[in-house]
Amino acid sequence: MSKVTCDIAISADGFAAGRNQSLEEPFGEGVGQVLHRWMFEEPEENAEVIERITAAGAFVMGRNMFGPGRGAWDLDWTGWWGDEPPYHAPVFVLTHHERAPVAMEGGTTFTFVTGGIEEALAQARKAAGGADVAIAGGAATVNQYLAAGLIDELRLHIAPVLLGAGERLFDGVSGLSLDKVGHAGTDLVTHVTYRVRH
Amino acid sequence: MSKVTCDIAISADGFAAGRNQSLEEPFGEGVGQVLHRWMFEEPEENAEVIERITAAGAFVMGRNMFGPGRGAWDLDWTGWWGDEPPYHAPVFVLTHHERAPVAMEGGTTFTFVTGGIEEALAQARKAAGGADVAIAGGAATVNQYLAAGLIDELRLHIAPVLLGAGERLFDGVSGLSLDKVGHAGTDLVTHVTYRVRH
């Protein structure tokens, strides 16, 4: 049966991003790629995990993950990922500002949803056609879906680094039970997968 | 070379205890043994890890780990661990209130240190006679030692549970670099060991 999954990279102290995210520093001041070194420096050792991150039939992400802009849209902005984003599937972007869908190369389409998290998930489920739906991030979006009991499988990728402040995974989330499914990892990451009961 | 180690059990959201710790609920309201099920339900699978927790030559712990009392000492209180605590070594308890040492069965002695964390560590190093010193907890004590750059090896035991609030590991800690040494685990825990550079 299809499920709602979520992959998220966090620091050992539980942050998915530092403070003051911006165009120049998408993961926050001074954070650079420290949460994702395992993806860039150990792509082979982590190949299976990396492949699974983009294996869903449709994706949901927060506007702050889609881009650094806030308020009215800069229509030139089509995401961080260049002409061919790695999703190769429909991506639903949560926003308060309407915008026409954007079709990218390689099958990724960005559809902008102003109706809230349940509406975005419903659209993603329909678009996935029976495949899994992935909540792609960032932390604030993941926390909303967790708090609403809408994520079935949570896959943490814990980097050996402390951020000290920023966007914290699980902020405002309570009342969920976790079953551990498995763990794996390398020197640069510990992967832990939980099934979420709600 | 001998090192300063720290084993601490935390929830997936980073808490070492919940809210309102008490005599009846040492790990906080409603927490029970959820952070430590792996020790009690899977002692064989986790035997090596459990044995390592009490393998140091001397220990330091905060008063709040030693007992639920605050302020002046109740001299009848000799810890949570019965007549023969599992340490079998000198244990230095941080406190603001002087108290004479207490010798327990099996080689554990509780010595009460009012001179602060560096003084307690110095006494523990001397007592350990070249063996490792372990910072035994709780979170507030561990955070003080981490923030002071005095812990060399941090061994997290991450339970598949969310507490939502309480005593958070890494609170107020920044500026440390972590090198991951290894991971292991079962369905009830993920063990992650970090070397701390400071």
List keywords for this structure.
two-stranded antiparallel sheet, Dihydrofolate Reductase, subunit A, 198 residues, nine-stranded mixed beta sheet, alpha/beta, 31% strand, RibDG_C (chains A, B), homodimer, DHFR-like_dom_sf (chains A, B), 5 helices
The SSE string of chain A, one letter per element, is EEHHEHEEEHEHEEEE
Largest interface in this structure: A-B, 28 and 28 residues
**Major sheet: arrangement of strands of chain A:** 5-6-4-3-7-1-8-11-10
Unreliable parts of chain A: none
Shape of chain A: globular
State the secondary-structure class of chain A.
Answer: alpha/beta
Terminal CA distance of chain A: 17 Å
Radius of gyration of chain A: 16 Å
Please explain how this structure is put together.
- Two copies of one chain form a homodimer.
- With 198 residues, chain A is of the alpha/beta class.
- The first copy, chain A, has a single domain, classed as 3-Layer(aba) Sandwich (Dihydrofolate Reductase, subunit A), CATH 3.40.430.
- Chain A is built from five helices and eleven strands.
- The longest helix of chain A is centred in the middle third of the chain and has 12 residues, at 117-128.
- At the A-B interface, strand 10 and strand 11 of A face strand 10 and strand 11 of B.
